[in-house]
Amino acid sequence: MLAVPTPERISTSSSVRADTRCLVKATEPTRIAIVGLGKIAHDQHIPAIGRHPGFSLSAIVTRGAGLPGFDHFTQLDAMLAARPDVTAVALCVPPQVRFGMAWAALSAGRDVLLEKPPGATVAEVHALTDLARANGRTLFATWHSRFAPAVAPAKAWLGDRTVTRADIVWREDVRKWHPGQAWIWQAGGMGVFDPGINALSIVTEIMPRPLHITSAELEFPENRDTPIAARLAFADTTSAPVTADFDWRQTGPQTWDIRVETTEGALTLSAGGAKLEIDGRTVDQPAEAEYDGIYARFAELLATGMSDVDASPLVHVADAFMLGRRIVTDPFHD
Ligand code: NAP
């Protein structure tokens, strides 16, 4: 049997927490800062924090102008020094700059929420996990797609069923979803794996057994550092075939589907985990509320002094880059 990566869920003891927490009364919401005021901060984090009674958005760290009504810093270090009452930070910056910020925040005794992917490398995530444990802080490596409404029901249905094959199709229009995001095309930005890792976060959550990549083809535009398309083949520990087709060149209808066949029926998760069909019948789901789920989980982790760090989706991306055959394709221009 091949060695396969094991998802890592770690916990830290609340009894070894550092001192900043005692500056805030237990009944008060956690004062949190957002770092990086880009698309996901505006679209999801600010509204979700606003809806959660356990959090109070108390500072914004942005190189830009800030937001009216919120304490504004252009550097994280300045915020950490000036606002000891801000005990948590949500890092909404690109992966290439996230490690240094997470390290600084954990070192300063803050709890840290990481947007996905949790790092630009796997080793970064291990280092942060160790630091959080050593400092008695909470580290939450979020995977927002795992909070899509149909993911938990899909996982429950799959249970210990025997998977015979699975196919992931994640095809979207990069010009629509990532206009002008230079970092995503630079080394460490992951290219098409930026959305593709969302599919991998679902698959690693719902599949009854771990997967490992057996082959990969990555298409790189000749003028970019990161791939625009990737085709992956995996096996699970019983050698059931699993394929993934990630492509950023799809115009028209967008596809974020995962189909899993088992010896006792098949399921299809579509719309990025929002919709579920089992044996062709729709299973109704509640409305999408991924980031409400993320902040509910973060509140739970803070209350219990736990961390939640699962690097397995990132491990598959790293393996795809290690094992993948490189194909050079047409240049990409925004
Ligand atoms: P974005 O719109 O480009 O925003 C990222 C922000 O990070 C920038 O606005 C900037 O904020 C800050 N930043 C700091 N250093 C930077 C640097 N060297 N280069 C560029 N920006 C820098 O990106 P995003 O879509 O919000 O994505 C951020 C993270 O969230 C990514 O890891 C992404 O995978 C994840 N995510 C995105 C989405 C989505 O739908 N867009 C969904 C889920 C997760 P300041 O100018 O304020 O400093």
Automatic annotation (TrEMBL):
GO terms for molecular function: nucleotide binding. It holds the Pfam family GFO_IDH_MocA. Residues 31-140 form the Gfo/Idh/MocA-like oxidoreductase N-terminal domain. InterPro entries: Gfo/Idh/MocA-like_OxRdtase_N, Gfo/Idh/MocA_oxidrdct_glycsds, NAD(P)-bd_dom_sf. Transmembrane segments: none annotated. This is Gfo/Idh/MocA family oxidoreductase. It comes from Aquibium carbonis.
